[in-house]
Amino acid sequence: MWLRASVRSEATRSAIVRIGRMEIRPPVTTRRQLAPMLAQCLRNRHAGPTNRSRDMSFSLYDAVIPSNLQILGALDRIVDKAEAFCEEHAMTQGALIDTRLAADMLPFGYQVKSCAVHSIGGIDGARTGSFSPDMSAWPTDFAGLHGIVRRAMDALSALDRDTIDALADADTQFAVGETKLPFTGANFLLSFSQPNFYFHATMAYAILRAQGVKLGKRDFIGMPRMRVSP
Is the pTM of this model over 0.85? Predict the structure, then answer.
């Protein structure tokens, strides 16, 4: 963004302040009157947040943990619906758990497992300083998938705010083979773990929906954190 002031002819004696493509025509008539206004614009441009925004505390914990718990809770109930679908259609659990959205994608069981990997697993990676992909096998029954999701929720619920907020500037790397990508803890959780978490939750939903499991948006979102009146 650039800022420029110009004064047209003394006959018109009108000043124009241009900020990017926006023109402001202040009620001034001379360069001397315009200068203090420009100085204030520049100070505002480079100033920090207002007192109002400084008072609004939104931490790394707030940005990560509640939403992880919300979606994991929804995923746990989606697994219930998957199990009911198998019973209703005389389908084995393993058959649905091995279903893929496309031939070159990983199956439902992997998608569920990965939601735990990129929630509590991502936080564990930020705490230890290194995260690597979890290549372990996923469960082949719904009880095992429930177990993965619920253990992740229990571990997330046990974390305290100060522990998570302290990870914001921690050195964290993504490591697979010889590849090592450096992050801060906050950037790792917000730009790597969270997108992966939502991707795999979405794929789990999409796989079941494609198979005919009756799911809607509310099943994916789960329980929103609505304001409770006193």
Answer: no
The packing angle between helices 194-210 and 60-88, to 10°, is 20
Cα dihedral 40, 41, 46, 47, rounded to 10, equals: 60
Beta bridge partners of 3: 19
Extract the tokens encoding 156: 């997330």
Q: What are phi and psi of 148, to 5 degrees?
A: -60, -50
What is the residue whose two structure tokens read 């008539």?
A: 29
Q: Is-contact 75 114, C-beta < 8 A?
A: no
Distance CA 161, CA 145 (A): 27
Q: Could you report the average pLDDT of every consecutive run of 10 residues in the chain (230 residues)?
A: 42 47 49 54 51 63 98 98 98 98 97 98 98 96 98 98 97 96 97 98 98 97 90
